[in-house]
Amino acid sequence: MPVNETLSQYSDWSYTTSVVIYILAMVFFLVEQSFGRRGREVAERTRNRELVGAGIDNTTSRIGNTAPGIDNTTPGIHNTTPGIHNTGPGIRNTGGAPTRAERFGRMGIALTVLGLLLHGSALVLRGLATSRVPWGNMYEYVMITCFVAVTAWLVLLRKHPVRHLSMFVLLPNVILMFIGGTWLYAVAAPLQPALQSYWLIIHVAAAAASSGVFLVPGVASIFYLIKARNESHPEKFAKFAAKLPAKDVLDRVAYRTTVFAFPVFTFGVLCGAVWAEAAWGRFWGWDPKETVAFIAWIVYAAYLHSRATAGWRGNRAAVINVIGFAVTVFNLFFVNLVTTGLHSYAGVG
Amino acid sequence: MTPAPSEQTDNADNAVPAYRATPLRRAWALVRNTWRGLTSMRTALILLFLLAVAALPGALLPQRSVNERNVNGYLDEHGWWGSLLDSLQMFDVYSSVWFSAIYLLLMVSIIGCLVPRTSDYIRSMRSRPVLTPRNLRRLPHHERVETTDDVDAVMAGARRRLRGWRLAEREEAGGARSISAERGYLRETGNLLFHFGMLGVIISFAAGALYSYEGQVVVLADGSEFCNSGIYNYDAFEPGLQVDGTQLNPFCVRVNDFDAEYRGGQPVAYEADIDYQSGDDLQTGTWRQHHLEVNEPLRTAGDRLYLLNHGYAPTFTVTFPDGQSRTQTVQWRPVDQQTYLSEGATKFEEPGITDPVKRRERQLAVTGLFAPTPSMHGNILSSAGPQLNDPQVAVDIMRGDLGFSSGRGQSIFEIDQSMVDAGRLERVARENLEVGQSLTLDDGTRVTFDGVERFVALQVSHDPLQNWVLVSAIVMFAGLGASLFIKRRRLWVRATPVEVTAGATGEGAADGEGAAAGAAGDDAGGGAAGGDGARDEGNAAGDESAAGGVTAGDGTAGDAKPDPRRTVVEVGGLARTDQAGYGEEFTRIAAELLGRK
Ligand code: HEM
Questions:
Q1: A106 HSE (CA, 13 A, CB side)
Q2: What is the residue extent of each domain of chain A?
């Protein structure tokens, strides 16, 4: 089927617009973040919430003691719980009207959602234009990876009080998308024969999904390290660290997302091996892409182990997670663009 | 969180030297400590890192196993630095001593880690859930209420709600009863499966490398045949260590045709029409038809046949001055995978010359470029696309000594440049030819470009263990899922008959904690609450400190006796892994158990 130029054009516009909207959202988050005093209050509140979170069951149990009216206590429990958990994007329900900073934050979220919708339609239109899955070259790969990253972040916000960090997740995203839309841009085209396989759908989707999600723990772990540095040397990052949530929130965010992404990544690598067996004559041949994926896998496995090893939890685990993300990015750019391997189908150049 | 069992034993060594250290004992201790060190979680971590670092050069430097030509190019360019890297096996990373050493150590470490964990696992599978802690308040998750149900009813309700959990019910002092419940055993199962699966992958991968082979061959798509009967039929052959090439799985293929489909200059499909025979068909001479495509190998005789690439083979006829002629169709190598501009060298020897010296002066080579869709830039031929579209060649005719007798192997795509440099091979003509055109040399020899055939690049692969790799990988993946997503968690329910004195509705809180708890209760809007759990400390009735939690009773101690109509129900929970998120489930279960659905 020929490529539909019109749809492809719409896809490009959609893509560009979504980048612009993400940038706008970043401005809003920046405002929220930098309301000096306010920002700190936000962090303060999340910290308090964490305390409440840790102590919640005790609290409820004490409520429980008020017996005879057991039923009366129910609201007490349920009121507290949402405070920690179902905190949708509009997180701060710790009482009172939203502050100005908060309002900016919420608008940022609204914009991010809008950007994500456009981002998604850019993908869909690309797919329709080419009558195939829209992840057949590097431009498209970056597009879907970033899509997953932003989606993962929005999902995460529903459970963890980290909205005011959104800017730092959007920033690498916008950079990636900018690079994707300029240097890596490839005109919509059909797939070369080697890529015509349903394994493309599965393998690349899994790879893109996991890389996208890995962006989140990467960012969270960097913040973890900043926070930890600040705790041991209060003069370091004093201003910035004050605005960060507690270390264990960051740690939990990193762990939860990694635990989600790691099996997806594993699945992607396994599917890649199955595909390579059918396409290249061997399931594993230490092609540069395969090698770096292997390294990334090992690093993330090390991360999971480090959390079960005395003396490695905390800082070292965070460092390992950051390395894991660095390897993932390295795999995306260096291996596709610089080395010549079987995976060099970037369509760049 | 479950620390590696080996770690728990790490410190035990310090307690050992109670008896005299004979050399034998010391040697044994060394062995044992080495083993423990090797199988500790920390070592595994470090080995994992080493493996990652060791794999890295393989991605940065060209590898012989992937592309030998690139390695030679690198060596030529980098002089002593290249040789140094080479002597460190940097171009054969994955078969290098150091890489193998790391993964062997890792394998030992995994085994050493799995053995004790497996026995721990079996033991824990048989054991009953642990005793209910005396003080459930200390647990990270804890809730408590009083109900009007009696102990039996509470226990029955708990059993019902905790179906699917492993339960142990126990009688306790004072008419209390408790249930210990545990769930998520599959997590350990999954974790063990994961590590065993990974071990399986490593072992079958390594063993597969011993018994596998891989050969590449170019076959013209004009009905030419190829048989997997010996390594000399291949252009390139890579045997595993245990393969000597004498026992290849026999089968033959005949390539009848090759077709490439293009859309807007972009290839969208490659397919080769082949016949093949294997097994009994070889005896009976039966050929079976097959459509060979990229991504869909032919699987036959335990081997796989792949269509890897294709290209063009121009046909040239040389008519010598004495009227004899020779025709050859030799594949030329695509130098540009987009346009299939190809280069090559088709080599001829004049027939009927017996004098070796004279023969070496009269050899001919047709070298140059082939363009399937020619596009001229001035006089320079290049190709505008991969399809055949009035193809052209731009050839140099070389005459002289091709260097066949030099003893050096020759590339079929190139002439021996050293012969040119030595002046023994000379260019005698240069021209662009279309199909059917010819050129004539000074001595009357005529060279004609007759047309072009297509060739296919095939690969035969054999790996008897790859199915084991797949099975192990699937086990590993399933295990990983279970290990990461199942939470190992414990829950306890204790029902205690309330001891009352006249008029008191609850037990008076006794200790400071009770007071604090009362305050916490206030904070949460729950009103004044009596401190819980004074019972545990044994002073059932309140004293002055009960003021912190003003319960209905006046807190006078009397002789306590069970009130059959009132029961204190306590629920405690503990997640045994560091996966956060038990809280929500616990809250839900506790709410149901405590009758607040
Ligand atoms: C290539 C080598 C290895 C890889 C890729 C690997 C991977 C993994 C993964 C993905 C997990 C799940 C982590 C989790 O449950 O949070 C895990 C858990 C575990 N691994 Fe390994 N492993 C390897 C070698 C080892 C070795 C050699 C040991 C023993 C020394 C070991 C001991 C453990 C233990 C005790 C756990 C459970 C940790 C927990 O429950 O959180 N692993 N491993």
A1: 13
A2: 38-86, 192-337
